[in-house]
Each structure stands twice: as structure tokens, then as C-alpha cells.
Design a protein that fits this description.
The complex is a heterodimer of chains A (113) and B (110). Chain A has 113 residues and is an all-beta fold. Chain A contains no helices and 11 strands. In chain A, a hairpin with a 2-residue loop joins β5 and β6. Classes of the chains: A mainly beta (113), B mainly beta (110).
Chain lengths: 113, 110
């Protein structure tokens, strides 16, 4: 089954404790992206990757890191999480090109206390 | 900002009625996409309309695009309780990047 998986689905952590949210897709997509969703703000792009070893900042990259060492994986790293990073996070993937739909993972609900 | 703005923010209708949601944007686009999100879950792609298209259908969905008014509408006909979800428009440019609106919350009462 074609899908995007994220782990963990739920995470409660404390300020400053490094964490990684994994994202994996099995559709051989070149493009992958991370979003955060907050009430009243819609989805905002954090980072994206056009292919292996090619990553770039989205609209809200501060406090986040990513890597793309393999085509299927695109982990999101929070080196020192803060309470304002409490949010619902989504990973998405697509074939490269403007008119391709994006496939979304199920989401990771992160709470930073 | 290129962000799409949906209208209304929330909509409540009875099963069997039609639901119409609108999306306005501020800049030129390559395409406009609509996604559905069931509560707290991942977004699911519904339909994509290119900037040179005016109308597109998919099952009970009808999307229109008016580039002169920078607006799009999503019509769901004969709605069902299972259509209850949030609906987002997403503005597509020359690359894969999408700018999402804040969504319309649709409640279909059985």
C-alpha cells in the first residue's frame, strides 16, 4: 500500500530534550516536506527536500533541522524543543513537479512542556 | 501573503444538501488544489485544477477557478455524514510548494 508513515504519533517531552520525528514513504517520491498545523494558522511549511541531499527552508524553519540521506526517509529534528513548538506535524511527499498531489502522513502530535 | 483564505470558516448542513466552500488568493498560480482532513488526521488530496482550467469534476465534487477574481470554489453535492471534515485549498506555484489556507470546517448532520 502506498503510504507515508510517521513515528511517533504522539509525543510529550520537556523543553530542551532533543527529539526526532521520522518520516518514510514507499512511493519513490523525490519531493518531501514537513508542515506544522496550528489552530487558526493552517499548515505552514517547515522544511522541504527536492531529492537526496537536497534540502531547503520553508516558511517557519527556526528551531528545526532535517536531513535526506535516503530517498524514502526525511526525519525532522528538534535539537532543543521549546513550548512554542507544541503542534501537530505532518510529513508529505510527491513526485517532483508543480501539478503533483502531495501524500500526507497521519501526523505527529507533539507537546513540549 | 499568497495564503489562500477559505470562506466560510465553518459550515453546518443537513445530509443530502450541497456544500459550497470558497477560496481566495492574492497572487498568480500554477494550480489550485483541495484537500480534506478528518479530525486530527493527515490531509487527503481531493482535486487539482490548473490555472488554464475553469471547472473540474470528480464524483460528487465540482471545483471552479476564476483567475481574474483570484478565487476558487469547491461544491460537494448530496452531502453525507462521512463528508464531515475540514477542507483546505492549497495554492500551487511553479514548484511542488503549496501554500495552504486556514480551512473550512464542514459538519454534515444526519
Amino acid at each position: 500500500e502506498a503510504q507515508v508513515t510517521q513515528n511517533p504519533r504522539y509525543l510529550i517531552t520537556v523543553t530542551g530534550k532533543k527529539l526526532t520525528v521520522t518520516c518514510s514513504q514507499n512511493m519513490n517520491h523525490e519531493y518531501m516536506s514537513w508542515y506544522r498545523q496550528d489552530p487558526g494558522l493552517g499548515l505552514r511549511q517547515i522544511y522541504y527536500s527536492m531529492n537526496v541531499e537536497v534540502t531547503d527552508k520553508g516558511d517557519v524553519p527556526e528551531g528545526y533541522k532535517v536531513s535526506r540521506k535516503e530517498k524514502r526517509n526525511f526525519p525532522l529534528i528538534l535539537e532543543s524543543p521549546s513550548p512554542n513548538q507544541t503542534s501537530l506535524y505532518f510529513c508529505a511527499s510527491a513526485h517532483t513537479g508543480a501539478t503533483y498531489e502531495q501524500y500526507f502522513g497521519p501526523g505527529t502530535r507533539l507537546t513540549v512542556t | 501573503s499568497q495564503q489562500g483564505e477559505e470562506d466560510p470558516q465553518a459550515l453546518s448542513i443537513q445530509e443530502g444538501e450541497n456544500a459550497t466552500m470558497n477560496c481566495s488568493y492574492k497572487t498568480s498560480i500554477n494550480n489550485l488544489q483541495w484537500y480534506r482532513q478528518n479530525s486530527g488526521r493527515g490531509l487527503v488530496h481531493l482535486i487539482l485544477i490548473r490555472s488554464n482550467e475553469r471547472e473540474k469534476h470528480s464524483g460528487r465534487l465540482r471545483v471552479t477557478l476564476d483567475t481574474s477574481k483570484k478565487s476558487s470554489s469547491l461544491l460537494i453535492t448530496a452531502s453525507r455524514a462521512a463528508d464531515t471534515a475540514s477542507y483546505f485549498c492549497a495554492i500551487g506555484g511553479a514548484t511542488n510548494k503549496l501554500i495552504f489556507g486556514t480551512g473550512t470546517l464542514l459538519a454534515v448532520q444526519p
